[in-house]
Amino acid sequence: MQNQQGIQNPQTQVPKTPRMNDRDFATDLLSMEKYMTASYNNALNEASHQGLYQDLLSIFNETQNEQREIFNLMFRKGWYKLEEADQQKMQQSYQNHQEYSSQFPYGNQMH
């Protein structure tokens, strides 16, 4: 088994106490923003009124941008680690999706 390397910045230290620290607050906010964007996405899919759809879309975009800013902050501070993608798995996934695209009703027009 290959040793997967993580992608992470040096970690900004925070106090390790029972009280919430900056990392805890950022993690809590990121979780909330992820939940909210998923919820707004569902609402957008089911909005039957154009005006409501536009309002929800605006709120969704704001929420998504906030989520991205929190993610960037956490990544910069080393509080969010990403796993390095395995090149062989990525190639296999790409090939699988290429095979699926041949099953589309209009042939292989989507890339």
TrEMBL record:
Pfam families in the record: Coat_F
Domain of life of the source: Bacteria
The protein's name in its UniProt record: Spore coat protein
Biased composition (Low complexity): 1-13
Stretches for region Disordered: 1-22, 90-111
InterPro entries reported in the protein's UniProt record: Spore_coat_CotF-like (IPR012851)
